[in-house]
Design a protein that fits this description.
Blueprint (H helix, E strand, L loop, with lengths): L1 E12 L2 E12 L3 E5 L6 H8 L4 E9 L2 E2 L7 H4 L2 E4 L11 H7 L11 H7 L1 H5 L10 H13 L5 E5 L7 H16 L3 E5 L3 H7 L2 E6 L2 E7 L5 H5 L5
Parallel strand pairs: 3-8, 3-9, 6-7, 7-8
Antiparallel strand pairs: 1-2, 1-4, 4-5, 9-10
Helix pairs in contact: 3-6
GO molecular function, one term: ATP binding
Keywords: Amino-acid transport, ATP-binding, Nucleotide-binding, Transport
Protein name: Amino acid/amide ABC transporter ATP-binding protein 2, HAAT family
């Protein structure tokens, strides 16, 4: 079954069209990357199935079902959790409270506070600290942990390497590979080539809001990737 599928999707912010005829899908156990330079529409893919951008044409299915009218909780209830670009940690809440917020959708599964703390021990140590008092890398761990608390079948990662040191990116890559090995599907929206190489198996390349190329990462050289993706 497809966890997320776009079929000939156009999407808009007001009257401004961003996505043009975008089609792709992600099934159980798959690790897919959406690639492209800044401003080509990568984050708009996420915003469209979250209902932030407007669906103008085409169809989006979530967990194999047409999404119909998309609301901000539709994807979460269908088993899709998003780690957003910029993390969006709530500073008025503690680390623990940010994590508990992720479980609000009340979707059954194995992810608990204890399991997140085992995955990211620093969050256990700082659980009573304001979420925004953490370092950038720790905030990204918090954003990932919060998304996992919704017990997703598909984890969407929007520019997870942004602003992070290489050593932290390596640590996160290990986490993503581990999650995939435990059966979580991944959609990685990213420009960092080494992270893409370690995490994703297949890719869709966006340019000017359209998919211009798709395939397996193994088929591409780094030089070919660099033509489309900033390092």
């Amino acid at each position: 079954m497809s966890l997320l599928a776009f079929r000939d999707v156009d999407s808009f912010y007001g009257r401004a069209q961003v996505l043009r005829g975008v089609s792709f899908e992600i099934g159980a156990g798959e690790r897919v990357a959406i690639l492209g330079r800044n401003g080509v529409g990568k984050t708009t893919v996420v915003n469209t199935f979250l209902g932030i951008a407007s669906l103008g044409k085409g169809e989006i299915t979530l967990a194999g079902k047409p999404s119909g009218r998309i609301r901000n909780y539709t994807a979460a209830r269908a088993g899709i959790s998003v780690v957003p670009q910029g993390r969006r940690i709530i500073g008025a809440l503690s680390v623990k409270e940010n994590l508990v917020l992720g479980s609000a959708v009340d979707r059954k599964g194995s992810w608990t506070l204890e399991r997140v703390f085992n995955l990211f021990p620093i969050l256990r140590e700082r659980q009573d600290t304001s979420g925004t008092a953490l370092s950038g890398g720790q905030q990204q761990m918090l954003a990932i942990g919060r998304a996992l608390m919704a017990n997703p079948a598909l984890l969407v990662l929007d520019e997870p390497s942004e602003g992070l040191a290489p050593v932290i990116i390596d640590e996160l890559a290990d986490v993503f590979v581990r999650l995939a090995g435990e059966g979580t599907s991944l959609l990685l929206i990213e420009q960092h080539i080494s992270l893409v190489r370690r995490v994703a198996q297949t890719y869709h390349m966006l340019s000017k809001g359209a998919v211009v190329e798709s395939g397996t990462l193994a088929e591409l050289t780094d030089e070919q990737l660099k033509r489309h993706v900033a390092v």
